[in-house]
Amino acid sequence: MIYRVLSLSVPRYGKLFFRFTLTASLLSFAAASFAAPPTPASARKQVHSRVQQAASDAIRQEAQRSRWEDYQAKLNLFIPSEISQYAPCGVPLTVSMPNGERLDLRRLRFDVRCESANGWEVAVTVKPDIYLSVLMAKNTLERGHVLGASDITLKKFNISNLRSGYVTHPDDVVGLTLKRRVRELQPISMSQLDSPVMVERGQRVLMIADQDGVEARTMGIASKKGRKGEMIKVKNESSEREVTAIVSDMGVVRTSLSAKN
């Protein structure tokens, strides 16, 4: 059975608001409250309340860890029909996640246990819809394109079903190169991006060697192309010796002083 009952809205100022939709008639409720004494919550209502709170807490913690801003979440709870066979629990329910701290936003599972004398246990699934401002391509971008600030935009998107991930901060992607074609308004993920090529094969590069505070510079020829942080072979023009160097900037590689000679 599905319950779409909870909507979480977190503005940039950090306050949390809960909005509930009540379908019962207020007049009918008032009449019933005078006609009969209150009855204890059913097992279904107990489970619904506890799982709803546990899922909200898990998503709120993920939002803090991932630095989400201005997100909204709707929770879809799936409670097994067998819960109707159980009596209300006389003690607070115990709720746990089988996967521990690992959070799969596509599908959250909670094990709920009643630890009273006639206890019971059910597994509840929660499928959240989480809307968050993520980076998207303003227009279709081709493979090899170097992303600039004008290529991207922030738009709300349901991230729950994004298998490849998402990015929320422009500084994380500007200057990186696309590994594959990205369609207009397609969410951008880090798996689609690569550092730009900073050294081309056969390019004349500046070799910087340092050791114990002593720095020396010379020129060399790159034997292969490289991105920032990659190790490549470079032939020292002075000694004609080929050494291993690390790409550090456009047309610049670094190596140890002993390797340069």
Automatic annotation (TrEMBL):
Main location, first listed in the record: periplasm
Limits of the SAF domain: 132-194
Alphabetical UniProt keywords: Cell projection, Cilium, Flagellum, Periplasm, Signal
Keyword Signal: yes
Pfam families noted in UniProt: ChapFlgA, ChapFlgA_N
Family: Belongs to the FlgA family.
Functional summary from the UniProt entry: Involved in the assembly process of the P-ring formation. It may associate with FlgF on the rod constituting a structure essential for the P-ring assembly or may act as a modulator protein for the P-ring assembly.
Protein name, as recorded: Flagella basal body P-ring formation protein FlgA
